Every structure is written in C-alpha cells, then in structure tokens.
Amino acid sequence: MSFNPLTWIGEALGIVDKGLDIAKEAVTDKDKQNELIANLVEVKLRLEYGEAYSQELSIKTIPWIDGLHKMGRQIINVLTIIIVALLILCGETITPEVALLLGGGNVAYQLIKGKGQ
Predict the structure, then answer these.
(1) How many CB atoms lie within 10 A of CB 9?
(2) 20 to 30 A from 18, CA-CA: which of 11, 56, 80, 108?
(3) How many CA atoms lie within 13 A of 82 on its CB side?
(4) Element (H or E) spanning 28, and its range?
(5) Measured between alpha carbons, how far is 75 from 60 in angstroms, rounded to an integer?
C-alpha cells in the first residue's frame, strides 16, 4: 500500500473538524474553549495549506520550461542589453520610440508578474 499524503490530509481535516465540534460542546470554560478552538483552527489551516502544496507538487512539469519561466526577467534584461549594444555598434540612434520598444517587453512582464522576490 502506497502512502498518499492527500488522503492522509483529508482524514486529518475530518478529525480536526470533529475536534472543533467536541470542543464547542464539551468544554464549559469559555477561555479554554476559545484557546482550544483557536489551536484547532490553526492546525486546520496548516493542513489545508499542506494539501494545496502537495497538489502543487504532484503536477507534472517540463524542467527546461520551468527554468525559462524562473529566468524570465533575467532573460528579457540580457536580451535588451544585447540589442542595445548591437544598435550602438551599428551606429543606430536610440530614440525614445526605440527605447520604448526595447523596454516594453520588460515593463509588460513586470506588470503581469508583479514584484520579484
């Protein structure tokens, strides 16, 4: 029998839910009840996060595409630098329009992806 973390997490979430119901019924001291419920909710949130993370890890990916995606900003920046260097070596004038065209890809990427890490 193989270990499936998603099955285990689902069972654990069910146990936590039962624990929440029992805590609401059986514990009479309100402070202790609130403390227990807060702890169980924290456990539930961690389990749900773990379930989402496990599902994300189980997705099959193509390594070189992942690498290109992670290097997106760097690739765009290097290509921009190379193109600018080639334009300068060929004696072309870099006008504001050309600068906008050269930087447009990077700006679009930044707007879509947001701030990097």
Answers:
(1) 20
(2) 56
(3) 6
(4) none
(5) 24
| Contact of 47 with 12, CB cutoff 8 Å | yes
Please identify which residue in the block is written with the tokens 């069910």: 14
What is the rounded end-to-end Cα distance, in angstroms, of the chain?
A: 40
The winner for highest mean pLDDT among 28-42, 47-61, 67-81 is: 67-81
Per-residue buried b or exposed e for 35-46, using 16+ beta carbons within 10 Å of the residue's own CB: ebeeebeebbee
Token couple for 79 = 């290509």
pLDDT tens for 58-111 read 777 788 888 887 888 888 888 888 999 999 999 988 888 888 888 888 888 878
CB-based contact 10:51 (threshold 8 Å) = yes
Query: Phi and psi (nearest 5°) for 3?
Result: -85, 125
Using the structure block, give the residue that is written with the tokens 């099959």: 60
